[in-house]
Amino acid sequence: MKKLSQLKVGERATIASFEEDAVPVKLLELGCLPGNQIVLHSIAPLKDPICVELEGSQIAIRRETAVRIFVETV
Amino acid sequence: MSSNSLKVALVGNPNTGKTSVFNALTGLRQKVGNYPGITVEKKTGRCSLNESTTADIIDLPGTYSLNTTSLDESVVVEILLNKKNTDHPEVIVVVAEVENLKRNLLLFTQIKDLKIPTLLVINMADRMAKKGIEIDVETLEKELNTKVILISTRSELGIDELKTQLVNHQELNTDTCTDITAIDQVYFEQLKSIFSSFDPYKLWLLITQDVNFMPIEKNPPLQKEDLTSTKTKAELKKLQHKETVLRYKFINAAISKAYIKNRLKADGWEGHLDRVLTNKFLGFIIFGAILLTIFQVIFDFSSIPMDAIDELFAGLAQVVQNSLPAGVFADLLSDGLIAGIGGVVIFIPQIAFLSFFIALLEESGYMSRVVFMVDRLMRPFGLSGKSIVPLMTGTACAIPAVMATRNIENWKDRLITILVVPFTTCSARLPVYLIIISLVIPNERFLGLGLQPLVLTLLYFLGFAMALLAAAVLNGVLKIPKTDFFMVEMPPLRRPQFKNVGITVYEKTKSFLTEAGRLILALSVIIWFLGSNGIGKDFKNAEQIVTSKVEASKMNWTKEAVEQEISNYKLEHSFIGYMGKAIEPMVKPMGLDWKIGIALITSFAAREVFVGTLATIYSVDEEDQQTIREKMDSERTSSGLKRFNLASGIAILLFYAFAMQCMSTLAIVKKETNSWKWPMLQFGAMTLIAYICAVGSYQLIIPYI
Fold first, then answer.
1. Band of the pLDDT at B94, cuts 50, 70, 90?
2. What is B2-171's CATH number?
3. How far away is chain B from the Cα of A52, in angstroms, using its nearest Cα?
4. Alpha-carbon span B521 to B647, nearest angstrom
5. ipTM of model
6. How far does B671 lie from chain A, in Å, by closest CA?
7. With contacts defined as CB-CB under 8 Å, which chain B residues touch A27?
8. What structural domains and CATH numbers belong to chain A?
9. B621 pLDDT band (50/70/90 cuts)?
10. Between chains, do B486 and A51 touch, taking CB under 8 Å as contact?
11. Residue B485's pLDDT band (boundaries 50, 70, 90)?
12. B613 and which of B39, B409, B592, B602 could share a cystine (Cβ 3.0–4.6 Å)?
């Protein structure tokens, strides 16, 4: 199991779990739910934030959130 | 008429082109304002559906879900839940978009569960073939239990069908998509025994209203008659999590039968362009180039229409002066009102150009790339990437910059940005900087660079640094609850729709004219009145006094020189003149006298007035820059020192760099924050900082002169 922040650009993974209070409902609603696929789409020039692909849309989040989401690479 | 008017609300995720649908339905028959008491923008418009029916359409703020996390979203919930709200709709149109249909449907299922007749519109249908997407509308309608309409605002596809469906809204059913009680049956049984008359989902929304969000500036949306919940916030959050899973289960089932996406076709030119735009090196270079272009246009191109407007109003004032009998009324009309209106209209080119570019960047999806790139840079100052555009545009003019903060959803971030924007060096400071620099900074070279341009550049950096510093301080001082969560959707890059851009420019300019314009006009008339009226013999008999002085001097005065001497004498003895003298003790520690005191006061109308006022005071023709400069250079203090020396010059520069001397900015800040508290605080704090810096620098430098 890895942290979402540890993925390489272009790498695909399945969301395993996350720290409940770290991830706001809004991100869940955008599809950040255990079992869903997630791809690290790109990283900002200054290494933070990162952009992930969820359910076909691209969403930028900060690293401080990404380190609290755990993924399983396939 | 009103019996045939249907209340329709447009609801949808951000970036679904909801506003395009709104524009397609209403055209220019729109009204943009604020919701009462808060700063969320409210857009309403009218649309005739057929010969006998019109619809009053409200474009609700974009939201991802009814579980509110921001002020914008709580407005949506308030309107949809509260039947007594005047904007409560009879029909809801949920706007979704082909590529993100699944995610958009989350909001749809929530809306449908409110039991209000709901239509689903799937926008951007023109992109389906290119993206390899197929939608089986009939199956989707059956699964979602509603009417589904494919729309493209680019090709106007589906708009007529939407209108027909709105007329036939009685056919829509009000069945729910999901059963909310499934997430915790025991809990909902309990609730039902207490609030038997309430619908379980509406009750759930009421209870969870402030789980993720602290209402900042408004009262709780509904009177909660003691909804003492037996659940803690953490438990409620967990239940919201369960609700989301439940809804996605329903959506996945519906979508799997009606929506096919061929992955192979997914990446196109947008993907390549995106990688270039956010590239480590190229990204910043491109952003820099775009900013430079925007400045260039706002700075240079606007000056052409601005000069024209300036001349037009000066000419108009002249016509009035010439055609009306001389007197107070003619003066009020020409120097007060016409000049005041001119002072408002003059901002239109800058505002129009800037809102054009911002709308273009927004529409194309580039703006969120910029936010993505610079977020890390802004964070040490308590801001996010979203503040970059207003701060940058503040270098042209603070007024459009304050308007540009509307893109920042987080209220605390937005307020801080509004408060610090006026520190950035706007173009109105330039004339002041130029004349003072030419007076006090030696025209020499330093390390091969001209000293004068170097100081000017330094002033630009100083403004920006002060803005960031003030942001960091405000971030620590302001006790506004803030959900410290950053999330930006990066919509696919798209070709902008010029109709939308045009409507945005029109609306922004109109709202500036009607709302901030009135205040600016009122303030200019007040300043005009203070400058052209006075009490006492000196003011009333200015002409005689000056004429007799001229005769006594026995010198040959030209007619113009006498007139200038009179206006100088009048200004000196007007209300503003006395105010200038009254503040002399305060500007003395900056090395200035009452004459510059007057200029500081009139600068409040607009900083560029500084030069003009000095011209009147020193009795020279305003057009003649060289003479003003010479006059200023020859002014001496009582101790024989040059009035404008390095110490007092730096003091003036620092004062103009930091002081809030722009009533138009104060007016727009009042409008955007909906209270006088913030502009007053801004005025007080900035003036204080400016004063301390000016006095400090003068006292530091003067011993060495």
1. very high
2. 3.40.50.300
3. 10
4. 36
5. 0.94
6. 30
7. 487
8. 2-73 (2.30.30.90)
9. low
10. no
11. confident
12. B602
